[in-house]
Design goal:
alpha/beta; two-stranded antiparallel ribbon; single chain; TIM Barrel; 16 helices; eight-stranded parallel beta barrel; 455 residues
Length: 455
Amino acid sequence: MTKTLFDSFDEISAKEWKQKIQFDLKGADYNEALIYKSYEGIDVKPFYNAEDIIDVDLNTSHPSAWKNSLKIEVEDATTGNSAALNAIKKGAESIYFIVTTENIEPDTLLSDISPEIPVYIETLFLSSAYIQKINTYADKSKISIHLLTDIIGNLAKTGNWFKNLKEDHQIVENIVKEGTNIDNIISVDLGILQNAGATMIQQLAYGLAHANEYLNHFENQENNPFREKPIIFKVAIGGNYFFEIAKLRALRILWDSLAEEYKMLKKCYIFAHPSHRNKTILDYNVNMLRTTTECMSAILGGADTIHNLRYDDVYNLENDFGTRIAINQLLILKNESAFDVVNNPASGSYYIESLTNQLAEKALSLFKNIEEGGGYLKQLKSGTIQKKIKESSEKEQELFDKEAIILTGANTYRNPEEVLPPMEKNPFLEKNVRKTLISPIIKKRLCEKIEKISI
């Protein structure tokens, strides 16, 4: 029998590799020279092998396919419908509507959309009567509709409930009861955390604690949405390529563990999009590269649906060119780069599996601390969550200011003769003085301070 090529080589342990590297360093300290101390508190080694995943569960669930999506903010039903149908003609495989008012009729907004095109609907208000209209349309049209209802996310983002704690939860219970023809109802928004500067471990732990509030609320109710309908996690993807892949995979592991405790449906639905945190108005075309690699991380990490961010979303209103580029980036990744051909491509990668395991373990530990401290809502109300995120945000900002975090064309390799683009909307953090129940979690881009100096 012919020997394989691998039979000609002896197996080499991690210890032997490290000894060889240490010898080649000629006296330099291995840990100081080659161990990368990541912002997440995870030490990244110069090499990984099978020994790094001996105790790691390699059966991370992964969708067999992913769909691209286009986000449309709807202020008029007819205009929103026209934009959706036009996007579908140009290759959009699903549509993400953000409905601004109850005056927007679902029948008009969803008219002529094929049942083969999934539709995601997020409302900027809370109304069971409005959801009843959507449910009726879903029944007669057979469209697959996914609701992104997240009252706790709204509290974290705005500092207020839609109505109040009791009434918001009652309305959500009514929505669950009435949404019989809707595929998903409850969502958890991790994007708020990422865009505010939370670490990946915080995003995962706080997101899990956020979901746990809903699980606790519905645990003993007859109409429990988590028995049959997957929860949707909205996740913002940053520029740390391999870590972001691992973040999504860790999220599925964590949800699997939590759902098991409640004996609920283990399947979760990940709705991913690029982050605003690292986007710039300086050398703004580089944003196309950033969103491309972030969408790649989302695909390889196992997102079910991805809506891309326009390269000019920070400073420009919706426009045909930016929208077309955003859709085309995803189409190229699928149809030309074949990112949909291999199922779970990150599985078995020593490095990514190790990162996934470490992120999951650290996030689970933090989640347990949150629950011991009274849970996510209690810590939001006390300001503990906001304080921790602010500390992480300031640490990341300091690294950016020292150029330890690089945004090409902004804090490094900047064109001194660059002219800033015309801005149709304010790209900077705006102060909105209002009375709130809690301090909201505020998103902020890393580059804002440099950009303000440039204006």
